[in-house]
Specification:
eight-stranded parallel β-sheet, TIM Barrel, globular, 51% helix, alpha/beta, binds adenine, binds zinc ion
C-alpha cells in the first residue's frame, strides 16, 4: 500500500520532472560520461589512468572538492579536438532536453585545456557549434560561461581573458571555480573588473567549502550577479540578509554537496532552510557525470529526501527561470508553462 505521503512525493517527483527549468550551474567537463571519455580517448589514442568506464565511474566517493577535481582534470585530458568538445556538449544538451531544461548556461574551464596546448579556439569552437545545433535541432536556449580556475594566479586568468576576447560573442559571462580553500575572490579583483568592462555577466563559486566571507567577497570584489553554491551563507545572518535584500540567486547543487561531503546526506541538506530564509535558490547538477545524476535526478532526489513542499519545489523551478541571463520575453512562455504544469497536477504553489 502506498501512504498518502508517498503518493504526494511520487506526484511531486513526476511534476518536477515535467516542469520547464533552467540549468545555471553545470560544468561541461563534469558532464563527461565515462563511456564517452573512453570513446574519445580511443579515437585520440590516449591512455586513461582507469582500466574501463566502470573503473572511472567507481572513482567516487570523493573525500572533498580537491579529491574530485583531481579525477575531473585527469578525465578531461582526453578532450583534444573541436569534435571532442562538440560531442561532449551535444551529449549534455540531448540529456538536458529530455529533462525539460529550456535554458542552459554552461560553464567551461578553458585553462584546463590551454594548459595542455589545446587552442582556446578549438574549445570554444566545438562547444559553440553544439550550442547552435541545440537551438536549431532541440529548441533549447543555451549559452556559455567561461570559468577561471581560482587555484591559478590572476595573471593566468588575465591571459586567458585576452585569448578569449576575440571570441567575445561566443560566451555571455565569466565565473570562478576550482578549489575554494586558500583562494579568496579578492585574488581576482582586477580580472573581473576587466570582464565587467567587456560587458560580461559575472558569477562565482563561493560558500561551497569556503566561509560566508567569500560570498561577500564575490559580491564586492567581483561584482558577482549570482553565487554558485552559497550554501554556507546560513552561518552568517548579515550575509543572508544581504543576499535576500539584493535578490542574489544561489545555484545550489544538492547531489554535489553530498558527494563532496559538504553535507552528510540530502536529508540534512539546508536547501529548505535557504528557501525559508527568503533566498532565491534553485537546484542544479554541477558535475552530473560524477555526482549521481542530471538536473532532474537532483530535483527528484531532493523532493524525495528533503522537507520540500510543492510550493517550495515550484519556487525553486521559478527561481531557476528568473535567475537566467536571458530576456524576460524569452523566459515568459516557460514561466507560464510552469504554472500550467503545477495547476494541471492540482498542486498548491503557495
Ligand atoms: N569545478 C567543477 N565542479 C566544481 C565545484 N563543485 N566547485 C568548484 N569547482 C568546480
Ligand atoms: Zn560548480
Amino acid at each position: 500500500m502506498t501512504s498518502p505521503q508517498q503518493g504526494h512525493a511520487a506526484l511531486l517527483a513526476a511534476v518536477v520532472e515535467r516542469a520547464p527549468k533552467a540549468e545555471l550551474h553545470v560544468h561541461v567537463e563534469g558532464t563527461l560520461q565515462p563511456e564517452l571519455a573512453f570513446t574519445i580517448a580511443r579515437r585520440n589514442g590516449i591512455e586513461l589512468p582507469w582500466s574501463s568506464p566502470e573503473a572511472l565511474a567507481r572513482a567516487s566517493p570523493f573525500s572533498d572538492l580537491q579529491s574530485f577535481l583531481d579525477v575531473y582534470y585527469a578525465a578531461a585530458a582526453v578532450l583534444r579536438t573541436e569534435e571532442d568538445f562538440h560531442d561532449l556538449a551535444w551529449d549534455y544538451l540531448c540529456g538536458a532536453r529530455r529533462d525539460n531544461v529550456v535554458r542552459a548556461e554552461i560553464f567551461f574551464d578553458p585553462q584546463m585545456h590551454t594548459a595542455r596546448g589545446i587552442p582556446f579556439e578549438t574549445v570554444v569552437g566545438g562547444l559553440s557549434r553544439a550550442i547552435d545545433r541545440g537551438r536549431r535541432e532541440l529548441g533549447l536556449s543555451a549559452a556559455l560561461i567561461l570559468c577561471f580556475l581560482r587555484h591559478l594566479p590572476e595573471a593566468d586568468g588575465i591571459e586567458t581573458l585576452e585569448r578569449a576576447l576575440p571570441f567575445r560573442d561566443r560566451f555571455i559571462g565569466v565565473g570562478l571555480d576550482s578549489g575554494e580553500r586558500g583562494n579568496p575572490p579578492e585574488k581576482f579583483r582586477d580580472l573581473f573588473a576587466r570582464c565587467r568592462r567587456a560587458g560580461l555577466h559575472c558569477v562565482a563559486h563561493a560558500g561551497e567549502e569556503g566561509p560566508p566571507a567569500f560570498i561577500t567577497g564575490a559580491l564586492d570584489a567581483l561584482g558577482a550577479e549570482r553565487i554558485d553554491h552559497g550554501v554556507r551563507c546560513l552561518e552568517d545572518d548579515a550575509v543572508v540578509a544581504r543576499l535576500v535584500r539584493e535578490r542574489i540567486p544561489l545555484t545550489v547543487c544538492p547531489l554535489s554537496n553530498v558527494r563532496l561531503r559538504v553535507f552528510d546526506s540530502l536529508a540534512t541538506h539546508n536547501l529548505s532552510r535557504l528557501l525559508a530564509a527568503g533566498l532565491k535558490a534553485s537546484i542544479h547538477s554541477d558535475d552530473p557525470a560524477y555526482f549521481g545524476g542530471s538536473i532532474n535526478e537532483a530535483y527528484i532526489a531532493s523532493v524525495g529526501a528533503m522537507p520540500l513542499t510543492a510550493a517550495a519545489a515550484h519556487r525553486l523551478l521559478r527561481n531557476s527561470l528568473e535567475s537566467a541571463f536571458w530576456e524576460p520575453s524569452e523566459a515568459a512562455p516557460h514561466l507560464d508553462r510552469l504554472e500550467v504544469v503545477f495547476a494541471e497536477a492540482g498542486l498548491e504553489t503557495g
